[in-house]
Predict the structure.
Amino acid sequence: MNAQKGEIERVKKIYFDNMNNQLDAIEKYRLAILDIYEEQYKEQIRKAPGTEVDENGNTVETLVAPTGDPEIDVLNVKLLNQIQTFFNTERDSVRLDIQNRRLEIRKAEANFENIELINSTVNEYLESLVRLKESRDKLAKSIRKKLENMTPIPISFSNIPDPETIKDIIRNFK
């Protein structure tokens, strides 16, 4: 029984360790995907300072396609704040989701412990019933043996003695 309990504990530990490792990996990849998308959105709003000729032929300063050099390119601060706020909210949502899943795993682990406790209690109860039956059988055999040694009363119901003979047997005991 102890070997079986130890094996169950080992399997349970491996199972829940794997579940937590999977949650760690899921969280890591979901956050990495959000980082990638955030960078893509930032690239879409990235511009570089440049000049253009307007319809009057004047050269005016304007924002043009990004150069790829972070020292030169600029971002619209309002749009950047919106993007960062959105992705920070999404990251918080991912972390909360993972935290809720970890809580559910802990509940499952507690349920397994309750099941093990119930199983152990039922096993103890069944073992006590077996011991009780064995004790009752031994007691019945002992009583039968004592009765057989004391009197010649037949144990079988097919040979029930005549009441008159029982009176004689009782007189002989005195």
